[in-house]
Amino acid sequence: MHRAYFRCFRGCPGQWPLYEIIYTCPTCGGLLEVAHDVDALRNRSAAAWMKLFDDRAGTTHFPYGSGVWRYKEWVAPDLDDANIVSTFEGNTNLFWASRLGEQIGVPDLWVKQSGNSHTGSFKDLGMTVLVSVVKQMIAQGAPVRAVACASTGDTSASLAAYGAAAGIPTIVFLPQGKVSRAQLIQPIANGATVLALDTDFDGCMRIVKEVTKDNSIYLANSMNSLRIEGQKTVGIEVIQQFDWETPDWFVIPVGNLGNISALGKGLLLMKELGLIDKLPRLAAAQAEHANPFYQAYLQGFREKVSLKARKTLASAIQIGDPVSYEKAVAMLKRFDGVVEQASEHELAEAAARADLTGLYTCPHTGVALAALIKLVDKGVIQSHERVVVISTAHGLKFTRFKVDYHDNELENVDARFANPPIYLPADVDVVKKTLARKLG
pTM of the full predicted structure? Predict the structure, then answer.
């Protein structure tokens, strides 16, 4: 029988069921993690796990067609299928970015399109697990009346959608004026109670932690390690898509640092169970205006850096006090990882450059691509290596960013790749002359 449970990430004694309302260690106050009975998982061979996951991929047999619940034994093995809330999340495509890769010096470049999900971001991977567990808790008699989160946009959209699908009320705390309209409308449309606070994300996080001390409102932010269990499947799915071969690098944009913690957790489990024989390296990418993890990296992680995040185009990672710092540091060290940053100009240019090769990138993916370009230029990432960039959200959620770039209206950005429309009279000769100039 496979089982999973909470335990202290720092190693304090104690185990707690996944269905208990607990977010931090009662002894030290540190974050929890979900642990699995690895010995029980080893009762199935690596080859048998691969075959099982391959057989489930894309199936309509609920819930295993989901890109998260395909790996149910590795996520929440004792969750009743009847309580799983799924939108067929995961199963997102790997885009072979060969043209962009050739241009920047890494031809074997792939972009994991995690934004091609139900609510348009990778947050769906974690939210399916959290809301499913809450649904089971309620079925077992827990006094949960609602689920709440602080968000810079994508988390709120995902929570609201999954809460609506489950019939569980949701509450989202958003920083006023710092969330795109496309992101703001998502939780509104899905019926969430939306509270726009006159503060930044870190301020929203402080308030939601206070509100959820009453166990009738359940906390859904990434300090809740249930989210990590779903998000860890992104790396597993990438390697499965490569026919169980490990790429050399993963590059991922980071803010609250839950996503890189999750990515590493899934990869370590694969290694422990023998599905892969090597670990990739990890690169965490931050916006220069919100770069506490980068600052800590420059100091060798001697101490956590917290700062007041400045306004950045990459609004979803505009976070100055990341919750999952300890987990991320441990993962980066385990994977011989690096941290790089991107200026506003660099992230906007990288996003526009990628779009010209067929992608349609959010600004956070622009941060990851800009960091990749810098790491290639520094020789950290080699031209022969296979690189996977995790794209965390769909570009359509950031239309204003795209429009302002091509209108050359972004502050501190020289839009070299701007491609505004050409306004002409309805005259064939004028059109022909314009096209002749344009096409050379």
Answer: 0.95
